[in-house]
């Protein structure tokens, strides 16, 4: 796959939850974290054409051709049977798309949106494509007004952020836990590089939003509120979005975890405010 193509999980033409205003949200396949609480675990891996999903499809939308799993969109009923069966945490519905094909989709809705957000999975695992896409948007007549944002877990090295710097209008980053060991247990990786990314992006005016997902009894924001508040203060005047975990739709042990309610969010809000952090965005809803 060349730098002008990417494996795309989904495109949502109009989204109001993936950055400011109405945006086209482009979800790329593949992630370098393995979060236990992930609501879209089938975006983590990549199909290896093992074919296990093919005979299980109740609508015969999948077939094996020359050793490749082929998805027929016109037959698919979106029952998600294949997603739950996949041993690779992938989806046979992901499609290889070129920059030109994505630009075509963006152009159709450009008059009605304020920008695009590239998410995942983890968008930066396909960094050359993201750079090429953003550069093309900036150079295409009729798309110049669109802002280009990345929704990221922050695992990209600084050298990668440097490549995005000239064509990216902002990055929204999740900090899954404060303590490195707790972060490792929850996601499969530590958070040292993520904290480095947050500092680097903030210092260059590229950090649009810090996101904290509150998972009762799992995340440590409240216990580490003093250190967390000091860290956020170092980032500058950055919006902090508080998201509430809900167990509906997750898999594995996370299905047994308690969903976050207003009382959990308010407790963290009070602790952060006590540490001088005031630009807090509460959840839009609780499930």
UniProtKB/TrEMBL annotation:
Stretches assigned to the 4Fe-4S ferredoxin-type domain: 38-67
UniProt-recorded Gene Ontology molecular function terms: 4 iron, 4 sulfur cluster binding; metal ion binding; oxidoreductase activity
Alphabetical list of InterPro entries matching this protein: 4Fe4S_Fe-S-bd, 4Fe4S_Fe_S_CS, Aldolase_TIM, BssD/PflA/YjjW, Organic_radical-activating, Organic_radical_activase, Radical_activat_CS, rSAM
Residues of the Radical SAM core domain: 17-284
Keyword 4Fe-4S annotated: yes
Pfam families (alphabetical): Fer4, Radical_SAM
Cofactor: [4Fe-4S] cluster
Keyword terms, alphabetized: 4Fe-4S, Iron, Iron-sulfur, Metal-binding, Oxidoreductase, S-adenosyl-L-methionine
Family, as annotated: Belongs to the organic radical-activating enzymes family.
PANTHER family to which the protein is assigned, alphabetical: GLYCYL-RADICAL ENZYME ACTIVATING ENZYME YJJW-RELATED, PYRUVATE FORMATE-LYASE-ACTIVATING ENZYME
Protein name listed in UniProt: YjjW family glycine radical enzyme activase
Name of the gene: yjjW
């Amino acid at each position: 796959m060349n730098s002008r193509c990417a494996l795309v999980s989904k495109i949502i033409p109009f989204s109001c939850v993936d950055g400011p205003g109405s945006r086209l949200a482009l979800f790329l396949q593949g992630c370098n974290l393995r979060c236990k609480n992930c609501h879209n675990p089938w975006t983590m891996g990549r199909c290896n054409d093992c074919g296990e999903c093919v005979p299980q499809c109740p609508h015969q939308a999948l077939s094996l051709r020359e050793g490749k799993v082929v998805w027929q969109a016109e037959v698919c009923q979106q029952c998600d049977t294949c997603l739950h069966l996949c041993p690779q945490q992938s989806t046979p519905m992901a499609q290889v798309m070129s920059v030109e094909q994505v630009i075509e989709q963006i152009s159709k809705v450009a008059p009605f949106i304020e920008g695009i957000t590239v998410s995942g999975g983890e968008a930066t695992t396909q960094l050359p494509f993201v750079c090429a896409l953003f550069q093309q948007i900036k150079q295409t007549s009729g798309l110049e007004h669109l802002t280009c944002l990345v929704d990221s877990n922050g695992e990209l090295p600084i050298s990668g952020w440097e490549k995005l710097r000239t064509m990216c209008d902002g990055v929204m980053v999740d900090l899954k836990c404060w303590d490195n060991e707790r972060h490792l247990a929850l996601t499969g990786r530590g958070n040292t590089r993520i904290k480095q990314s947050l500092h680097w992006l903030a210092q260059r005016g590229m950090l649009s939003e810090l996101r904290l997902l509150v998972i009762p009894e799992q995340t440590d924001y409240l216990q580490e509120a003093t250190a967390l508040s000091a860290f956020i203060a170092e980032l500058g005047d950055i919006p902090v979005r508080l998201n509430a975990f809900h167990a509906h739709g997750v898999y594995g042990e996370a299905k047994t975890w308690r969903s976050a309610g207003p009382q959990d969010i308010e407790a963290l809000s009070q602790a952060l405010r006590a540490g001088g952090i005031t630009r807090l965005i509460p959840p839009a809803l609780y499930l």
